[in-house]
């Protein structure tokens, strides 16, 4: 061993010493070990000069740090590959599937590992390089864990938008985790924090000066290489810039790439030809609004969850027709294939295209405008267009109002009333916990009867929502499935088909009710996307994963015009049949669909309306957020009685399991009996007490306030509904 010791020829009593065991690396040289217990310097500046030329590190972790320093590129590559493997294993809930992902998509694995590797290089800027590496790697692992956690209770993965909602999600954590799971998670998190603290204080630290210029140039070059790297990956089909199914995209293209796409690639890029002059030229052929309000009918859209014709699945047989009502409507009314933007999931994006007339291909890959631009911004829609000409506008969804943020979004799209799970009477649920669709018929008819004007009603069903169990969980299914040897897949198809069949029965009942209704009405039925049953194009006789079907029923003897359309054209197509020509994109689709530059100009219009200077409107958006009301029917109390045990029996109308009783503005515990009865125990009341039944979410948010009831007066008085 060599001992490096600064010689001192001067006999001065005080010397600056740096004590301890060290290893020293000279520039462009190997490592020489020494075990002297001191290094002596004449003064502090001489010690600083020595440190500037050398890297001095404690001896105990020397072997690891020598490897990190000498082979840092290799070290970061190995760490990046390990992290990508771990993240994909978490996302797939399987180490085996992660290995299969690497084997079958090795180029994708390397592409994602490179993204992680680039970020790890930020550790060069820190003296505690190991600690910095652990921090960066930990962030990646937290993202992977968040994705796995999200996928455990919903079909869409963790996206950049979800980061904004993390604090809201924490308030609902008890809904998805048991107490034991939360305790275990807390313990694990505490252990990780302890490990990080120990590494920070006890871990190795490079004492020499950081080579800022060298590292800044190299790391900047790596980050700048990401853009051409992504372009290369897209051109050579390693990854894609469009996610038809965001869940499948995460599986196909990896979490790191897809997640950062949802973070960085949002909205619509500024088109090359964008100016006020360009906008005027695009709109010059669309003309003025044209309609006859006296001839306009009620317009009902029903977006059918995962609904499609199961007979399109090759080789599968059914004991009877799984969609008899829809099939009959196809034969008798306008119908055709509907090209949707998603497959297997992404209901909100189909909904967005239908309501706005906008093409999602111009947005970021996998983007949900409901979670981004539309969440806090008003946008023109078919609802606003019809509202402008005298319609009332409604939305109905037999799921929670917060799903895809609809309670916020619908107000920005011109919807006046929204009847959600918290408002509706939903007596039956599927074995998977989704509300059945049958009672939506009454909800739709209630909307039509609630106003004296013509109504636009947009309804979203949920019964056929996935996932679909591989075990047989239905007792005596109406539709039996055969023709496949895969028992698990057969069970999944059979479950889906029977839910689809019940939705079809709802369609039949609704059409009967509308046939008896005395107003002109148009009913548009369409599937939002194919079910998440793992289809490939070769499994379907129409050869497309992005096609469902639509039917336009009416009681006005409209001309039958069968043709394929896309979801962003559907509303314009329906209004055109009704001779209603209003709205920017509605008129654009009606008059420009088959013209040159149709898609190019559509992209420019979309950009201007949402992100640009709004030249379409003369520079100022003419629409304002609507004062959305939850539901169309009052929640009322008709009488209050006491039983022999002293319990209060509250009689009234429009109660459901989300009803919350208040006495003198204070919550009391109630028991839901039925839609006309609630039971309250352990309370003492006096005459003059004021009672109210509100509709409240599971998180405690009041959705609609009920009519006040004073026991002494025996009658209610109006109370403003929650805005």
Sequence-ordered SSE layout with sheet pairings:
Layout: E1 16-19, E2 22-25, E3 31-33, E4 38-41, H1 44-53, E5 55-58, H2 62-70, H3 72-92, H4 95-104, H5 106-120, H6 129-151, H7 160-164, H8 166-171, H9 173-176, H10 179-202, H11 212-224, H12 226-235, H13 246-253, H14 255-264, H15 276-283, E6 298-304, E7 317-318, H16 324-332, E8 334-339, H17 347-356, H18 373-376, H19 382-388, E9 392-397, H20 406-412, E10 417-419, H21 440-449, E11 455-460, E12 481-482, H22 487-516, E13 521-527, E14 547-554, E15 565-566, H23 567-577, H24 584-592, H25 598-610, E16 629-630, E17 636-642, E18 648-653, E19 659-663, E20 666-667, E21 670-674, E22 677-680, E23 690-696, E24 702-704, E25 708-710, E26 715-717
Parallel strand pairs: 6-11, 6-13, 8-15, 9-10, 9-11, 10-16
Antiparallel strand pairs: 1-4, 2-3, 2-5, 7-12, 8-14, 13-14, 17-18, 18-22, 19-20, 19-23, 21-22, 23-24, 23-25, 25-26
């Amino acid at each position: 061993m060599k001992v490096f010791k600064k010689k001192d020829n001067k006999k001065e009593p005080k010397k600056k010493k740096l004590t301890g065991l060290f290893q020293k690396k000279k520039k462009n040289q190997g490592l020489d070990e020494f075990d002297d217990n001191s290094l002596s310097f004449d003064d502090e500046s001489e010690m600083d000069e020595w440190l500037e030329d050398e890297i001095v590190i404690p001896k105990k972790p020397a072997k690891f740090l020598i490897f990190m320093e000498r082979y840092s590129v290799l070290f970061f590559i190995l760490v990046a590959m390990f992290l990508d493997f771990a993240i994909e294993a978490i996302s797939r809930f399987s180490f085996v599937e992660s290995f299969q992902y690497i084997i079958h998509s090795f180029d994708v694995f390397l592409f994602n590992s490179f993204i992680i590797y680039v970020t790890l290089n930020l550790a060069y800027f820190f003296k505690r390089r190991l600690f910095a590496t652990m921090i960066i790697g930990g962030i990646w692992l937290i993202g992977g864990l968040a994705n796995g956690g999200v996928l455990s209770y919903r079909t869409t993965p963790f996206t950049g938008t979800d980061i904004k909602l993390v604090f809201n999600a924490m308030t609902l954590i008890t809904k998805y985790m048991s107490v034991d799971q939360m305790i275990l998670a807390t313990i694990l998190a505490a252990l990780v924090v302890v490990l990080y603290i120990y590494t920070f204080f006890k871990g190795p630290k490079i004492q020499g000066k950081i080579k800022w210029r060298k590292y800044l140039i190299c790391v900047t070059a790596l980050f700048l290489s990401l853009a051409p790297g992504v372009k290369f990956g897209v051109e050579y089909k390693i990854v894609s810039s469009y996610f038809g199914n965001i869940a499948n995209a995460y599986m196909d293209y990896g979490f790191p790439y897809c997640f950062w796409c949802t973070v960085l690639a949002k909205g619509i890029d500024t088109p090359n030809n964008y100016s006020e002059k360009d906008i005027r030229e695009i709109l010059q052929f669309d003309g003025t609004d044209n309609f006859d309000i006296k001839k306009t009918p009620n317009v009902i859209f029903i977006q059918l969850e995962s609904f499609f014709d199961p007979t399109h699945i090759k080789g599968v047989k059914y004991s009877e027709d799984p969609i008899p009502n829809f099939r009959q409507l196809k034969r008798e009314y306008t119908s055709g294939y509907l090209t949707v933007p998603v497959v297997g999931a992404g209901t909100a994006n189909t909904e967005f295209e239908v309501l706005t007339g906008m093409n999602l291909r111009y947005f970021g890959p996998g983007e949900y405008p409901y979670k981004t631009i539309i969440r806090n911004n008003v946008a023109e829609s078919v609802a606003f267009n019809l509202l402008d000409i005298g319609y009332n506008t409604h939305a109905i969804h037999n799921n929670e109002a917060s799903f895809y943020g609809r309670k916020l979004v619908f107000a920005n799209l011109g919807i006046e009333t929204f009847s959600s799970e918290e408002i509706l009477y939903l007596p039956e649920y599927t074995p998977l916990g989704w509300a059945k669709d049958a009672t939506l018929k009454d909800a739709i008819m209630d909307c039509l009867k609630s106003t004296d004007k013509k109504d636009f009603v947009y309804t979203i069903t949920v019964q056929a929502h996935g996932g679909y169990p591989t075990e047989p969980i239905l007792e005596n299914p109406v539709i039996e499935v055969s023709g496949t040897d895969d028992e698990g897949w057969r069970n999944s198809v059979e479950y889906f088909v029977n839910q689809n069949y019940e939705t079809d029965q709802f369609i039949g009942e609704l059409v009967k009710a509308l046939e008896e209704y005395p107003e002109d009405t148009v009913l548009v039925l369409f599937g939002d996307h194919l079910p998440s049953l793992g289809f490939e194009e070769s499994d379907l006789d129409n050869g497309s994963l992005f096609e469902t079907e639509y039917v336009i029923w009416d009681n006005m003897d409209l001309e039958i015009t069968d043709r394929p359309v896309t979801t962003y054209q559907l509303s314009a197509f329906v209004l055109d049949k009704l001779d209603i020509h209003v709205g920017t994109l509605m008129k654009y689709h009606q008059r420009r669909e088959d013209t040159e530059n149709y898609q190019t100009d559509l992209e420019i219009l979309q950009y201007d309306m949402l992100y640009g200077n709004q030249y379409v409107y003369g520079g100022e958006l003419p629409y304002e957020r609507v004062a959305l009301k939850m539901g169309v029917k009052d929640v009322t109390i008709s009488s209050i009685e006491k039983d022999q045990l002293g319990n209060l029996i509250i009689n009234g109308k429009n109660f459901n399991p989300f009803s919350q009783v208040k006495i003198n503005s204070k919550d009391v515990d109630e028991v839901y009996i039925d839609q006309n009865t609630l039971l309250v125990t352990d309370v003492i009341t006096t005459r003059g007490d004021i009672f109210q039944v509100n509709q409240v979410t599971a998180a405690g948010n009041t959705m609609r306030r009920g009519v006040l009831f004073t026991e002494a007066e025996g009658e209610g008085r109006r109370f403003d509904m929650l805005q």
